[in-house]
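Input for the complex:
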Amino acid sequence: MEVNEVFDKVKSLFEEELGIDSEKITMDAKLEEDLEIDSLGIVEVVMAFEDEFEIEIDDEELTDVGTVGQAVNLLHSKL
Amino acid sequence: MKTVFVTGASRGIGKSIALELGKDYQVIVGFSNSKDKADEVAEEIKKLGGESLAVQLNIADRNSVDEAFNLIEKTYKQVDILINNAGITKDNILPRMKDDEWNDVIQTNLTGNFYTSQRAIKKMIKNKWGRLIFISSVVGISGNQGQANYAASKAGLIGLSKSISKEVGSRNITSNVIAPGYIETDMTSFIDDENRENIIEQLSIKRMGMPEDIANMVSFLCKDESEYITGQVIPIDGGLTT
Ligand SMILES: NC(=O)c1ccc[n+]([C@@H]2O[C@H](COP(=O)([O-])OP(=O)(O)OC[C@H]3O[C@@H](n4cnc5c(N)ncnc54)[C@H](OP(=O)(O)O)[C@@H]3O)[C@@H](O)[C@H]2O)c1
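Predicted:
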């Protein structure tokens, strides 16, 4: 899967799971500050990623993920 | 229809909770050794037109908890309501208490409920709805001689439940503790007639509690209408702790 395809899927998951305005979801958007996702929200997103992409994500892998782009790259590297 | 998982539902208080909730929900009857009794509870629920399944697990063992949840989720998608009821006693006065007696009671009554709650909460967060109910004890509030381990485990549940209530309140999940007094079950069957009379003497309502006294409150807390009640400890003890 190409990076931009992963981004599109991530974008629709953020919209569906967390009701985030699609215009705000860019590669540079910061998850906490720009998208206002709280720690439980991150748990929800990770569960949604795991179901959608059929992968498992360890908590350690998330330590460096602060933006949508970093999340997309992590997912892309695991596919 | 929502799915409820009641641990320790083969006997006593858990059985009564399972039968009461069987009227309104799909009920998973958790048990550890008493398979026949658990199957009977599930059969009784089905006879009354409900849906039920008996599932074996040892709540003190994380792998066993995971396997039970995997099985439940295969059939019912998720646990919407978790009733953490299973519990044990290993009484001894503090100077004589063995490490095993302490560890077994803490591992089962406290850590076991951490395992089940952690496992259930993820799906509840995703669903943005859930109910957690912990069956603690008045002993966790007042303490009791010969029950330092049990009292510590039951007091621990209060901290666990209150913390959960704050963590997940934003997702329409409530967490509450029920603290029963003396309830007629196998756990209290060793109390002889004389002691029984002494106990009843201390109560405002002059009888021992029945499992149904607990089940009715559980049923109430499960309802949508109870969504504003969270992080609370509700004693049901005939007035013992007023
Ligand atoms: N009775 C009282 O006066 C009273 C008062 C205050 C609080 N409580 C609390 O209420 C709860 C229920 O008490 P009860 O009187 O109904 O007890 P009970 O009659 O002794 O039944 C205990 C239940 O817990 C299950 N269980 C025990 N260890 C387990 C484990 N490691 N994993 C999974 N299940 C396990 C048992 O399953 P098996 O049948 O398969 O062994 C049984 O279904 C307990 O947490 C107890 O501390 C009771």
